[in-house]
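Record minuted for everyone:
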Amino acid sequence: MPPNITQPDAPTSSVPVTLASVIMMKPVVQLEPTGCGIASVAAIAGLSYARAKAIAGSLGISSRDERLWSETAHVRKLLEHFGVKLSRSEHSFLSWEALPDLALLSTKWHLEKGRPFWHWVVFVRDDRGARVLDPKKSLRRHVRTDFGRIRPKWFIPVLDAPLAVNHGRPRRRRMR
């Protein structure tokens, strides 16, 4: 677990997130077994997995790098590239009700040779209710509400996800 985890002072469901970024958010499926971090970033940024992976590569981030799912720096760097503001620290998971309206969650947390690893997912709460966007390829449904089966260890609140990050604006089609 990252060393800087803090306990939230109060429920953080009132964290200001641009409404359009939450309303239009859709799950992005990871196309590689170790691409959950890139897929979770893609969901928040409103990009395809391929586009997020290409941009990650240009920033020196690879889904094959174990740090992508055992440290937070790569996911933070990629989201920062898209103008998404995150909390500076990770917070211990207390309850689903205490989560902010938009957060990155670490699930399936475990130790391998003394090193922590986890699976990244995105938590969203809006007028359609609370749900988890799980990028795992083998799932039948990537929008999950089976909260009793998901075991988060900690989360990173998303403080702001600007409209300029593909949500809330039409995508341009390339003309051939």
Q: What stands out?
A: The two ends are 48 Å apart (CA to CA). Residues 8 and 91 are 6 Å apart (CA to CA). The chain has a mean pLDDT of 82. Residues 19-160 form a domain with the Cathepsin B; Chain A fold (CATH 3.90.70).
